[in-house]
Amino acid sequence: MNRLMNQLELKFGKYAIERLPMYMLICYAIGYLMQVINPNIIDVLALNPYAILHGQVWRLVSWILIPPESSNLFFVLIMLYFYYSIGMTLERTWGAFQFNFYIFSGMFFTVLGAFCMYCFVELFQSGVSLQQDAEMAARYGELAGMYGGSYYYLVLSRYFSTYYINMSIFLAFAATYPDMQVLLMFFIPIKVKVLGIIYAAMLLFEAVQLKFMGLFVIGASLLNFVIFFISTRKRHFTSPQMRARQKQFRQQMRHAQVKNKVIAKHKCAICGRTSEEYPDLEFRFCSKCAGNYEYCQEHIFTHRHIERKE
To answer: Cα–Cα 20 to 30 A to 251, which of 33, 56, 85, 270?
Structure first.
């Protein structure tokens, strides 16, 4: 797994998004603003597989704008700052590409979990979904298509959000820095690994409460952490300072290579020797060859002339 990640980073690392946690906060800010303007907008953005299959494909991406739910704005700001700080620490420790891969794989598994949930419902609980839709339609009227067109899937889609993506960030942080201490409630020192165990227990309890939904919502969203934990059990992560030094060294090496690269004025078409490597050699163009071919003094009279192709 580590070898595969290294190969992917060498090939696609230049496309990695630097400071990804900051862009995640920007998405939440946009979501909060949209929610203030229209509180029902969340149901238009939610990851609803039923609505997606009926043409609302924007939901494949728009669900990441849905901010964490809380009635206390101050608590939300503290929580988002906490996730931002640990996210930036992980990005500096792993590198931008691997952190990007971790986050986007978590989002991909969340989308995959939503469609697996849809298939499960359609195969084994289609009667329940149709019955509930009929009952809700009789009580409140037909649900507008912009909200998904199904009361049953409208409710289920609200479970899919970035909440569990943020939880996976913390679990990864706890696995990477298990002995780091943080201040719980600003004054209780506690190790991160203890908080990680508490968070994992809470997630397990939520999964049991949600029954089959727990597998698709929580299980799918945290599948990236499971893969990460299994593949990095014996891996030693470098510190953020070491990653910064390694990045600076690679940049200096690239600049040095560009600076030292000199374009040769003359090059022999036979042996490949250049005037920069062999300044004592003489180079001449051949007037009988079709094209601008140059040869060193050893091959100017012995080479085979290149004829023009008809």
So the answer is: 85
Q: Please give the Cα distance from 164 to 237 (Å, whole number).
A: 24
Helix (H), strand (E), coil (C) string for 41-55? HHHHHCCCHHHHCCC
DSSP string, 215-270: IIIIIHHTHHHHHHHHHTTT--PPPHHHHHHHHHHHHHHHHHHHHH----S-B-TT
Q: What is the pLDDT of residues 276-287, one digit of tens each?
A: 888 888 888 888
Helix axes 73-94, 240-260, angle to 10 degrees: 50
DSSP string, 262-299: ---S-B-TTT--BTTT-TTS-EEE-SSSSS--EEETTT
Q: What is the CA radius of gyration of the chain?
A: 29
pTM: 0.73
Q: Are β-strands 283-285 and 188-191 bridged in parallel, bridged antiparallel, or unpaired?
A: unpaired
Spatial contact of 47 and 59, defined as CB atoms under 8 Å apart: yes
State which H helix or E strand residue 173 sits in. Answer: helix 163-176
Q: In angstroms, how far is the first alpha carbon of the chain from the final one?
A: 54
Taking the domains of the chain in order of start, what are their residue ranges? 2-250, 263-310
Distance of CA 110 to the CA centre of its chain: 13
Structure tokens at 306: 């290149």
Q: Are 270 and 295 in contact (CB under 8 A)?
A: yes
Which sign does the torsion angle of CA 217, 222, 226, 228 carry?
positive
Q: What share of the chain is helix, strand, coil (3-state, %, to 5)?
A: 65, 5, 30
Tens digits of residue pLDDT in 165-222: 989 999 999 988 888 887 776 678 888 889 899 988 998 898 888 887 888 888 888 8
